[in-house]
Amino acid sequence: MNIRDQSLLDRAFHEAERASWLWTAPNPRVGALALSQGHVIGHGHHAFLGGPHAEEAALRDAGAWNEDSNSPRPGVVDEMILTLEPCSATGPSKRRPKSCLHLLQAAGVKRVVLGATDPDPRHQGGAIAAMRAHGIEVIHAAEEPRFATQNPAFLMAQDQPQRPFVLCKWAASMDGRTATEHGVSQWITGEEARAEGHQLRAISDGILVGSRTLHLDQPRLNARVSPEDPWRNQPVRVFLAASHLAQANQGPLSIAGPRWWIESNPQASLPTGATDDDHLLSLPPDECGRPDLDQALTKLKDEGIGRLLIEGGSRVQAAFLRAGLVDAIVRYEAPSLFGGGLGSWQGQGPQHPREAWQLFAEERRDCGKDLRRAFLLRAADSPVVKE
C-alpha cells in the first residue's frame, strides 16, 4: 500500500473515533471516506445501532444519495476508504435493508481501500471476493490490530454469538443509592439524563426487568423519544419471573408491542389481560430459583434480540453479573446524597478487591446536572483488553 492510501486510511480511522461503542455495540465503530477523482468529498461513520453504516453515511455526505429512492446515486463517488470490510450479509436479523456491499456496487465505486477484514468467520473475505468479481479494485491494508484496538465492544460480542450484547443501566445518587428506603426512585436524575436513557432504549432490541421493579414501578418500558431523534425502534419488553405481578391495563400491558415473560415455575401463565403480543417462556430454575439466565439469553437471541438493556432491579443485575453475562454498564450519577436506601447492586460480591470486575473503555458525558459513565466489563481473571 502506498503512502497516499495509508494517509487516507488514517483519516478514516480518525473518522471512526467519532463513534461510541455505547451507541453502536454490538456493531463495530467504522469510518469511511468517499472520493471522486482523488479528492475526498464525503466523510462518514456508523453513529448508532440501526442507523446508516459508515459507507452509507459517507455516500450521503458526498451527495451520492437519492433520497426519493433511498439508494446511491451512481457516478458521483469512484473510490472509498473503509476501516472495515463492508457487510455482505442480508436477512431478517439485519436492520438495514441492503448490505454495504450492494451500496458500493450500486454507487459505481471502482476502487476500495480496506483497513481490516470482517472478523466474523461466516462473512470474512466475502465482500472482498464479491467486489473483485464485480470489477472493483480492492486494497487490503492488513490493519486488523488497529481495528481491534478501536473495537473492544464489537469483538466481545463476536466472542458470544449465541447471546445478546448485554448492558446494565441504572441511575444513582453520589453514594450509590437507586431508591430511598421506602423504594421511591422517581426521579433521581434530571430530564436530560432520562431523555438519553430513552434513546438507549430506542436503539436496543430488548429491555429486561425483574419482579421487584415490575411490582414497585409498573414501568411501561417503551422508548419515549422526540420526533427529531433519528431512532424509531421500540424494544421488545422482557420480564423475569414477574408474570404474576403484572396488572391489566397498567404499566407494560397498557402499551401494545411484543412482551416476553420468562418463568421457572412450570405452573406460571401469562398475566391477566395478556394479548397476542405476549409470549411465555418456561425454563428450568437456577440455584436461586430464577429462570436459567444462560438459556434465557440464548432464546432471546434466537428471537432477534442482539442488544439487551437490563434496567433492574439490583438483584437481577447482580445475578447477570455473577453469571458472567454482562458486557457493559451505564450509570447515571446525580449530584445528591441519600445517606441510606437501596444500593445499586445486591447480592454476594467478591471476597477480595483483586477479584472485582474490571471496567475499561469509559464513555463519559455530562447530562445537565448529572454525569453518565459507561464502561465495558471484564472479570478479574480475564485477559487484558488493550484500549
**Biggest sheet details:** 9 strands, mixed
Order of helices and strands: HHEEHEEEHEHEHHEEHEHEEEHEHEEEE
Please compute the radius of gyration using only Cα atoms. 22 Å
Structural class: alpha/beta
Counting DSSP H or I runs of 4 or more residues, the number of helices is 11
CATH topology of the largest domain: Dihydrofolate Reductase, subunit A
CATH architect. name of the largest domain: 3-Layer(aba) Sandwich
Major beta sheet, strand line-up: 13-12-11-10-14-8-15-18-17
CATH hierarchy, class of the largest domain: Alpha Beta
**Average pLDDT level:** 90
Q: State the share of residues found in helices, binned by percent.
A: 10-25%
Any low-confidence stretches, pLDDT <50, length ≥5? none
The amount of beta strand, in percent, is: 15-25%
Beta strands, count: 18
Distance between the termini: 26 Å
Which term fits the overall shape?
elongated
Question: What do we call the CATH homologous superfamily of the largest domain?
Answer: Dihydrofolate Reductase, subunit A
Q: How many domains in all?
A: 2
